[in-house]
Specification:
- The chain has 413 residues and is an alpha+beta fold.
- The protein has four domains: 145 residues, Alpha-Beta Plaits; 88 residues, Glycinamide Ribonucleotide Synthetase, Chain A, domain 4; 119 residues, OB fold (Dihydrolipoamide Acetyltransferase, E2P), CATH 2.40.50; 40 residues, no CATH class.
- Helix content is 20%, strand content 33%.
- It is built from eight helices and 25 strands.
- Helix 3 crosses helix 5 and helix 4 packs across helix 5.
């Protein structure tokens, strides 16, 4: 049997990974869990998400009635109040998901999927269905069951003791820094040294103490042994699609749609410029059309790379497409500079013992004293040092999305 659940959390507390781990523990005496539970991240651009748009699934052997009663009773008992918490769960009595469910997962990665469509699919598959509120959690529950993760990563999540939930967390930053230095990149996105950010510890009042992401189960378990923190109540390792770029599709500017995450290649057609709050925008054209690309303030030092771009630079960009007051805008996750445009600056000529005066952009120079002119084509020029080089660049850990693949895990270009 396959069980999926989603949307049991809220910004005020709870966590679907926590509830999934508790359900698995409650089933230990009456059923057998097969393999690791799966933490499946879905479309990161969807506005309905609570935090990381993650859903959970696990395979189990046992009495379907007992399993289903345990799942639904524990979801109902732990439901957080509020209109933004709409739990959903399914139980599919099958050893593996059918192709239609795998296709649904892919759509949930790249598009906006409707609640009614999800309910209809669950009923068509003969799955047992449970939901509260508007049932939005059914979408994630189905997608998590249908997810095919060919090259998974892993996350060990440690949970707080009940009496500590809602109080300030204690995770020792130095121990996380040391762990990151020792195990990176087999353990990744743990610590942002430049911004002094401990990425493994959430800021919300949920039961999670920390979550360590890595390329193997052994790596995350080794990392957890190096972290000093307040007491851990229990921990659970999840198989995940995090850091896989599963949300990214190749596209051109004609194929851009709201909420898609894409990779496209083009040339800078409008020079980078700062707008309010420290955001940096530029335009990229691919011969089909153009799109605004944005590096927002939370991407920190990544904006310096974007500011150094110039018209004519040949790039590949990765990011999520959102509707903004400027139109469709690509929120950058990383970029690759293939070639840089050649930029030059004039060497101002001298005449009559002093520098000549410009007579207009690309028009040349005139001597203030004798009136002699030097046309633009005759003005000597020197190459401009760009301050950036061909290669790949990514946003820092503090701004990294769950699904975004770190450059350290990508093959060399």
């Amino acid at each position: 049997m396959l069980v999926g659940l989603d949307d049991t959390d809220s910004r005020e507390g709870m966590c679907t990974t926590y509830l999934c781990a508790r359900i698995i523990a409650a089933l230990e005496d009456s059923a057998a869990i097969e393999g690791l539970p799966r933490l499946v991240r879905l479309n990161p651009n969807i506005p309905y998400k609570t935090r990381g748009n993650g859903a959970l699934a696990f395979a189990v052997h046992g009495d379907p009635d007992v399993v289903w009663e345990t799942v639904t009773d524990m979801i109902a008992a732990s439901r957080m109040p509020g209109p933004d918490t709409n739990p959903g769960a399914i139980l599919l009595d099958a050893p593996s998901p059918p192709p239609v469910l795998e296709a649904f997962y892919r759509r949930a990665l790249h598009e906006e999927v409707g609640i009614d469509e999800a309910k209809e699919l669950a009923l068509h598959l003969g799955a047992r269905l449970f939901f509260c509120g508007n049932g939005r959690g059914i979408i994630g529950a189905l997608a998590a069951v249908g997810a095919r993760i060919t090259s998974p990563t892993y996350e060990l999540i440690a949970y707080r003791e009940l009496g500590s939930i809602g109080t300030p967390r204690y995770v020792d930053a130095l121990s996380v820094s040391d762990m990151d230095a020792a195990l990176y990149p087999s353990v990744f996105d743990s610590y942002d040294a430049r911004n002094g950010y401990v990425a493994i510890a959430p800021r919300s009042p949920c039961p999670v103490l920390y979550g360590i992401r890595g390329t193997s189960r052994e790596a995350v378990c080794s990392a957890a042994a190096m972290v000093r923190s307040e007491p851990v109540s229990f921990s659970q390792v999840f198989e995940t699609n995090q850091a896989t770029d599963a949300h990214i599709e190749d596209a051109d500017t004609a194929g851009l749609r709201r909420y898609r995450s894409v990779r496209l290649r083009g040339r800078v057609s409008d020079a980078p410029h700062d707008v309010h709050h420290g955001h940096v925008f530029f335009s990229l054209s691919d011969g089909v059309g153009s799109v605004i690309c944005a590096a927002y303030e939370p991407t920190k030092e990544f904006r310096a790379v974007v500011r150094a771009l110039a018209v004519g630079d040949d790039l590949t960009v990765w990011g999520g497409v959102m509707e903004t007051p400027f139109g469709l805008t690509l929120n950058l996750e990383k970029l690759e500079i293939h070639t840089l445009a050649s930029l030059v600056r004039p060497v101002v000529p001298k005449c009559c013992g002093t520098s000549m005066q410009s007579i207009g952009f690309s028009q040349g120079y005139r001597c203030r004293r004798c009136g002699a002119k030097v046309p633009w084509d005759a003005v000597p020029k020197v190459a401009v040092e760009r301050g950036v080089h061909p290669g790949r660049y990514e946003v820092p850990v503090i701004a990294r999305r769950h699904l975004a693949r770190p450059l350290a895990l990508m093959p060399c270009p």
